[in-house]
Amino acid sequence: MFDPKVLSEYALSNMDFATESIQNRLNLFQTFKRLYEQNPALLSEILNLATLDKQMPVHPGNFSYVLGLVTDKQALLITNVSEDRSQIFLQPQLHNQIWTFGRDPNKASLPIRDRRLSRCHAAIRYDNACGFLLYDLASTNGTYVNGVRIRQSHILRDGDLIRLGSMNFGFFTGAEFRRVGDTPPEVLQLISEATVPPTAPMDDDGMPATIADDEALPPNLEPTLHFMSGTEFAQE
């Protein structure tokens, strides 16, 4: 037979636990309410980060990047953020070198499938004096660099982490070109003896093909793009 006193103590302990749980939830709600009243943008950012993993599953080895490269006065972007494959985007207008990001392929030069992106969300522009700059184009969900929302423009640095909508990617660029030394004879010997994988596409000279023959490149870019394998060349 159950002891009424024991049952009463058990019920009271559970009631205290339930009351404490409800009180904790109320306190948490009040904290978020005050946070929203004081800084609604910060609360939105916290909620976005909390749901980011559910919206965009991370695949190991699938790192998104944008590489800004400059040769002479010509700038180009190499990136895999559009269509999930590496491509080279050349902006031939030397006086107006701008690349736009957004979900609308009719408005963005680099369209990205992301419902949190605006139709034309952000842009990267190359300036001879400042280098590469990132612009937010009055987007709904904002443009972030290293976790901080930018309001208009931001000078990009090598290694910056950018977030547009639900997508995160790294930005990389080089401040200078360095000429490498001669290849040691023993390295040349090892390379000459190595076999090229049969799956690699070959050109008429027996070398791995990187760019289609009918895709003419500007003369000042040919030496640079010759060494970029597995990419697709696209002009803005």
Instruction: State the major sheet.
Output: 8 strands, mixed
What would CATH call the class of the domain at 65-174? Answer: Mainly Beta
Poorly predicted sequence stretches spanning 5 or more consecutive residues: 53-61, 211-216, 221-231
Mean pLDDT: 76
Write down the Rg. Answer: 27 Å
Overview of the structural elements:
With 236 residues, the protein is an alpha+beta fold. 27% of the residues lie in helices and 25% in strands. The chain has 4 helices and 13 strands. Helix 1 packs across helix 2 (40-55). The longest helix has 35 residues, at 4-38.
Sum this structure up briefly.
The chain is an alpha+beta fold and 236 residues long. The protein has helices at residues 4-38, 40-55, 185-193, 222-225; strands at 65-71, 74-79, 87-90, 98-102, 110-111, 122-127, 131-136, 143-145, 148-150, 153-155, 161-164, 167-173, 232-235. Helix 1 packs across helix 2.
Ordered list of secondary-structure elements with their pairings:
Layout: H1 4-38, H2 40-55, E1 65-71, E2 74-79, E3 87-90, E4 98-102, E5 110-111, E6 122-127, E7 131-136, E8 143-145, E9 148-150, E10 153-155, E11 161-164, E12 167-173, H3 185-193, H4 222-225, E13 232-235
Parallel strand pairs: 1-12, 3-13, 4-5
Antiparallel strand pairs: 1-2, 2-3, 4-6, 6-7, 7-10, 8-9, 8-11, 11-12
Helix pairs in contact: 1-2
